[in-house]
């Protein structure tokens, strides 16, 4: 495999910055995925879509007090209470609107960590960044004219399909197709990618994405919320001095940020009037991390086993690490919590977690959602990687905030060490002067983010972004020390 030159990567990123004021390490090669791993990713996409469908059914039946099972009695109104905790009433009512039923996110992106036991799914994001970046890197690193095309398998009449996963602009095309399908009777719909100030770091990649689609004749525009205005019950923006009607809004902002969206009222009104489709739908329960804790909740196990296909249920049971809702509601005398053990005993109170030893603290605490710290690993505390005082403060904070913002506790699965080539400049301390940039094999840990676009009832794998972090980083996310890479399918 021929290496991509450092100068070429640098020149491409200088010409088209993908993130505002962000930089990362560079690598000469895309991340290799075997055909078996790609087939597993395809199965993971199908399982994630089923999970979202089953989560909505759980929520709506919980709200209505309906039975969750076919042949046994199981009613769980507390599940909806968890998912609605701390949300504005108008958003709750919007999520429950019958016109919203069955409407799912058009983009699904799980965060997969590569461990000694295989993939572990730390989160499932329905408002993910990185779509434009991954598509850009796919094009930059593309090596072979007949790349993997997103089909379920990896082999065909011509032998194994190898090359960049999602190359030939598969991500760009499928992103548009998934959105356009929301208005099936509208040829070439007008699509607004609305990026809030909170998410402005990602605006350059969304602008690039819109521009690529415009080059192919698609009516896609990257806008700020304040660019939108109402007219006759519909939603418009100013296009060269003329008002242009918007058919579809792709909201690149999370719902906790809705109060800072000055035109939110107009978006809701246009949706209520049937004038605009919104993706992802504005359903707060789809943005809650505690869905994973509900998946592992012992009272709901029969529900998930019944609601999901057998293969998807087994796969998700392996992928999703044990997770619990930190709910400090008082227990009856003698009752114990479903959770990890501390000092060889089950918990009788969530504050018992504060006494956990470092060995027992292979646990993560993070806020579930609907909060400004709920994305970008900003609320994540890894117990085994912090001081006892920091851990105790994290437990106290999670318990104190529970009435408004629930936290989840999740078992930590350590990513295994892997090796990959990165570009590195020797420091003056090593050579006496800054040497030339060279490609070296480096140790690190991997997070893989596959992107699925929901089309015709399927979650179609269309690309993947690999984050290769230094081995001392316990929590893997986009950072200055990491390399961000597309993926290639290898034989």
What would you note in describing this structure?
With 491 residues, this protein is α+β, with helices and mostly antiparallel strands. It has 2 domains: 331 residues, Glutathione synthase, substrate-binding domain superfamily, eukaryotic (Rossmann fold); 90 residues. 29% of the residues lie in helices and 25% in strands. Strands 1, 2, 3, 6, 20, 21, 22 and 23 form an 8-stranded mixed beta sheet that branches. Strands 8-7-12-13 form a 4-stranded parallel beta sheet. Strands 14-19-17-18 form a 4-stranded antiparallel beta sheet. β12, α8 and β13 form a beta-alpha-beta unit. α2 crosses α3, α2 crosses α11 and α5 packs across α7. The two termini are 12 Å apart.
Task: Name its key features.
491 residues; alpha+beta; Rossmann fold; 2 domains; 8-stranded mixed beta sheet; 4-stranded parallel beta sheet; 13 helices; 25% strand
